[in-house]
Amino acid sequence: MNAQVVDQVRRVAEAARAAARVLANASTALKDTALQAMAQGLRARGDQIRAANAQDVEEARAGGLSGALIDRLTLTDKRFEEMIASIEAVVRLADPVGQIIKEWRQPNGLLIRKVRVPIGTVGIIYESRPNVTSDCAALCLKSGNAVVLRGGSEAFRSHGAIASAIQQALDASGLPRGAVSLIPVAERAGVDAMLELDDCIDVVIPRGGEELIRKITRQSRIPVIKHAKGVCHVYVDEAADLAMAQAIAFNAKCQRPATCNAMETLLVHERIAKAFLPKMVTQFRQARVELRGCEATRVIVPDVHPATEEDWSTEYLDLILSVRVVGSLDDAIDHIKHYGSAHSDTIVTNARAHADRFLQEVDSACVYVNASTRFTDGYQFGLGAEIGISTDRLHARGPMGLEELTTYKYVVIGTGQIRE
Amino acid sequence: MNAQVVDQVRRVAEAARAAARVLANASTALKDTALQAMAQGLRARGDQIRAANAQDVEEARAGGLSGALIDRLTLTDKRFEEMIASIEAVVRLADPVGQIIKEWRQPNGLLIRKVRVPIGTVGIIYESRPNVTSDCAALCLKSGNAVVLRGGSEAFRSHGAIASAIQQALDASGLPRGAVSLIPVAERAGVDAMLELDDCIDVVIPRGGEELIRKITRQSRIPVIKHAKGVCHVYVDEAADLAMAQAIAFNAKCQRPATCNAMETLLVHERIAKAFLPKMVTQFRQARVELRGCEATRVIVPDVHPATEEDWSTEYLDLILSVRVVGSLDDAIDHIKHYGSAHSDTIVTNARAHADRFLQEVDSACVYVNASTRFTDGYQFGLGAEIGISTDRLHARGPMGLEELTTYKYVVIGTGQIRE
Question: Which of A112, A351, B361, B405 has the most CB atoms around it within 10 Å of its CB?
Answer without folding.
Answer: B405
